[in-house]
C-alpha cells in the first residue's frame, strides 16, 4: 500500500515533506536569498527547413538545426510570474487585434508581438547558440 493511500499516510507526507523528499520539498517558502541565488538555463534543439518550399515537399528531411538557450531567474517563483505578467499585458494590448472566438495558439497571439523584448527587459534571456545547415 502506498503512503498516500491512507489518511494517516497523507498526514505524514503533508506534515513532514522535507523528510519524505530528502529535503527537496518543504512546507515553508524559499528565503529571499535563495530566490535571488536561483536561476534556470534551458537548451532547445530544433530541426526544420531552411526553405518553405522544401518543407512542403513530401518525405523531405529537415536540413537545418538550431540550438537556443533560455536563461532567467528562479523558474518556480520569479520567472513564471514575469512570463505570465508580460503575456497578460500583451494580450490586453492586442485584444482588439486578436481573432474573434475560438482557441488561439501562443504563436497566433504572441508571434507578431514584442514579447521576447519584454521578457529580456525583465531578466529572461533568449540566445541563439548556433544555426547549422545539415547535409543529408
Q: Describe it for me?
A:
- This protein has 136 residues and is an alpha+beta fold.
- It contains seven helices and three strands, in the order αααβαβαααβ.
- The protein is extended and about 60 Å long.
- The termini are far apart.
- The model has no long low-confidence stretch (mean pLDDT 89).
Short note summarizing the structure:
The chain is α+β, with helices and mostly antiparallel strands. It has 2 domains: 1-30, no CATH class; 34-133, no CATH class.
Instruction: Categorize the overall geometry.
Output: extended
The number of helices is: 7
- Read across the widest sheet, the strand sequence of neighbours is 1-2-3
Main sheet makeup: 3 strands, antiparallel
Which percent bin holds the helix content? 40-55%
The value of Rg in angstroms is 22 Å
Task: Give the SSE order as H and E letters.
Answer: HHHEHEHHHE
Low-confidence parts, pLDDT < 50 over ≥5 residues? none
Count of discrete domains: 2
Distance from first to last alpha carbon: 53 Å
Average pLDDT, all residues: 89
Total count of strands:
3
Q: Please indicate the percent range of residues in DSSP E strands (runs of 2 or more).
A: 15-25%
Alpha-beta classification: alpha+beta
Amino acid at each position: 500500500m502506498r503512503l498516500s493511500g491512507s489518511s494517516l499516510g497523507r498526514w505524514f507526507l503533508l506534515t513532514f515533506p522535507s523528510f519524505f523528499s530528502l529535503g527537496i520539498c518543504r512546507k515553508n517558502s524559499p528565503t529571499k536569498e535563495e530566490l535571488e541565488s536561483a536561476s534556470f538555463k534551458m537548451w532547445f534543439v530544433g530541426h526544420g527547413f531552411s526553405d518553405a518550399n522544401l518543407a512542403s515537399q513530401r518525405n523531405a528531411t529537415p536540413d537545418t538545426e538550431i540550438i537556443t538557450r533560455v536563461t532567467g531567474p528562479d523558474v518556480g517563483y520569479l520567472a513564471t510570474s514575469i512570463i505570465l505578467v508580460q503575456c497578460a499585458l500583451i494580450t490586453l494590448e492586442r485584444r482588439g487585434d486578436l481573432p474573434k472566438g475560438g482557441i488561439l495558439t501562443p504563436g497566433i497571439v504572441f508571434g507578431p508581438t514584442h514579447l521576447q523584448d519584454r521578457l529580456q527587459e525583465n531578466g529572461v534571456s533568449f540566445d541563439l547558440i548556433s544555426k547549422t545547415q545539415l547535409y543529408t
